[in-house]
Write a structure and sequence with these properties.
It is found in: Cytoplasm. GO terms for molecular function: protein folding chaperone; unfolded protein binding. Keywords: Chaperone, Cytoplasm, Disulfide bond, Redox-active center, Zinc. Pfam families: HSP33. The structure is a single chain. The protein has about 290 residues and is of the alpha+beta class. It has 10 helices and 13 strands. α9 packs antiparallel against α10. The longest helix is centred in the N-terminal third of the chain and has 18 residues. The protein is globular and about 70 Å long. Bound molecules: zinc ion. The site of zinc ion has 6 residues, from loops.
Length: about 290
């Protein structure tokens, strides 16, 4: 099953919902960053949320960034998505290892630690939208639920999960976001809360063979769920040697001259996809000519 997101409405548009299967993109993130299991789970959850939240944006060129700045050993997580659900991201310390938590699960909260969640939406306006909330549990899904309620005033339920294989590759990954519109009837809210309290984890549903459509049907079938859209999603970085060259040009003549004086090729790493770009001394000399 290739990765995709479905969007849906239910209860006569009083509910809007998203569900995603993201195994391939989380596995891609794991392999390019060589993340430990707990880092894979943390990054995978935020990538899954980012992909779904990216599709909430309207503009072709809109960019969403989710940033966790916290004191745990993973040293922060950054995820960026566009409105077509192309997503990329990285963690500060990909090889973080922690013992399992009290439930015997990967200790994402322990790895992330106490801190802040920042949501930045660049919609081509003068200033980007920035929402910032304090992490509630550092398990990521609950932190996003809190963000939606307090920063966007949209009551939401967020479920995110990453399940690992014994060989530490990704077995399943996915998530859902269910949001209530301001005019939602109390009866709908009560019934939905009851329904959500009955659900098992999103990864157990995916592992049992449920598709995103089936997950939404399980959660919202009683509310007349209607799938409105299906969007492919993938881990995708738009870096190129040309873009990296532009970045080097921007650091200025003096620093570039110093690199040339070292008489060694330089290597520039893209944090998002961990690709290394090498520039020879000869290339640096060409770059110097283009620099101001
Ligand atoms: Zn890249």
């Amino acid at each position: 099953m290739a990765d995709y997101i479905v969007r849906a409405t239910a209860a006569d548009n009083q509910i809007r919902a998203f569900a995603a299967t993201t195994r391939d993109l989380v596995e891609k993130a794991r392999s390019v960053h060589n993340t430990s299991p707990v880092a894979t789970a943390a990054l995978g959850r935020l990538l899954t949320a980012g992909a779904m939240m990216g599709t909430m944006m309207k503009g072709e060129k809109d960019i969403l960034t989710l940033q966790i700045k916290a004191g745990g050993p993973i040293n922060g997580i950054t995820v960026t998505a566009d409105s077509k659900a192309n997503v990329k991201g990285y963690v500060g310390k990909p090889d973080v290892m922690l013992p399992p938590n009290a439930k015997g699960k990967l200790d994402v909260a322990g790895a992330v630690g106490v801190g802040l969640l920042q949501v930045i939406k660049d919609m081509g306006l003068k200033e980007p939208y920035v929402g910032q909330t304090v992490l509630q549990t550092s398990e990521i899904a609950e932190d996003l639920t809190y963000y939606f309620a307090t920063s966007e005033q949209v009551p939401s339920s967020v479920g995110l999960g990453v399940l690992m294989e014994h060989d530490n590759t990704v077995k399943q990954a996915g998530g859902f976001i269910i949001q209530l519109m301001p005019f939602t009837d109390d009866a709908v809210i009560d019934a939905l809360e009851k329904k959500l309290s009955e659900v098992t984890s999103v990864t157990s549903m995916l592992d049992a063979g449920d598709t995103p459509e089936m997950i939404l049907d399980k959660l919202l079938g009683d509310f007349g769920v209607q799938i409105t859209d299906k969007v492919p999603t993938s881990f995708c970085c738009n870096c190129t040697k040309h873009r990296v060259e532009k970045a080097i040009i921007s650091i200025g003549k003096k620093d570039i001259q110093e690199m040339i004086d070292d008489e060694k090729p330089i290597e520039v790493n893209c944090h998002f996809c961990n690709t290394n770009y090498e520039f020879s001394v000869e290339e640096l000399k060409q770059i110097l000519k283009k620099s101001k």
